[in-house]
Amino acid sequence: MSDLSTQPDPTRLLGELDLRLPSTGLYDGPDPQAFAPLVAPRAGAGRGACVFDYFRRWQHGETLHLAPGAFGCGGWGRAFFGIQTRPRDGFIDFLWKDEGLRASRALTATWVDDAPTCHSAYGHILIGPLKPELAGYLKTVTFWANPDQLSVLQRGAYHHHRWGERDPVTVPFGSACMDGTISP
């Protein structure tokens, strides 16, 4: 785990921007019980809802626990646990025809074949309230913001950024899972 003293305190930022909804953390941790209270999708491949169906539960202090046996949608199973819930062509057709992910089937196929995946180090992805004592397992933080607040957050992410360092903003902005890529 990383040194907790390096974790910034967002209290002033959240107050100044008037961010009213609690931020949400995505963790890759070894002990799900440390994140209790927990909620999980039904067990089984592809049996479950989008992770954003748990939004209200995150806001009320619960943490969504995703694991190889219970990961919700097939995209999460593929992205974090390397589990294919449907054949490649069926997955491409779903993303292209049903979800409208890319402009053509060929672009969608290229995306499916080339998009990076983020494999869980511990087999437990946890999404929910920020837990400062578990910051060493934190991978991303989502600030629920309006467009003006989002602009300030994006600009602020570069406040201490040095030229040549990895960009601190790595996910294109958009609603829901956007394009399904999360930088490891």
Summarize the structure in words.
The structure is a single chain. This protein folds into two domains: 1-82 and 120-179, no CATH class; 83-116, no CATH class. Helices cover 27% and strands 11% of the residues. The protein has helices at residues 11-16, 55-59, 74-81, 88-98, 105-114, 147-156; strands spanning 24-28, 38-39, 63-66, 125-129, 138-142. Strands 2-3-4-1-5 form a five-stranded mixed sheet. α2 (55-59) links the parallel β2 and β3. α4 (88-98) packs across α5 (105-114).
Detail the topology: elements first, then pairings.
Layout: H1 11-16, E1 24-28, E2 38-39, H2 55-59, E3 63-66, H3 74-81, H4 88-98, H5 105-114, E4 125-129, E5 138-142, H6 147-156
Spatial sequence of strands, sheet with the most strands = 2-3-4-1-5
Shape: globular
H/E topology pattern: HEEHEHHHEEH
Q: How many strand units?
A: 5
Count of folded domains: 2
SS-based structural class?
A: alpha+beta
**Would you tell me the overall average pLDDT?**
83
> Whole-number radius of gyration?
17 Å
Percent helix range = 25-40%
Largest sheet report: 5 strands, mixed
**CA-to-CA gap between the ends?**
16 Å
Percent of residues in β-strands: 5-15%
The residue ranges in which pLDDT falls below 50 over 5 or more consecutive positions are 1-5, 178-184
The number of helical runs is 6
At a glance:
With about 180 residues, the chain is α+β, with helices and mostly antiparallel strands. Helix content is about 25%, strand content about 10%. The chain is built from six helices and five strands, in the order H-E-E-H-E-H-H-H-E-E-H.
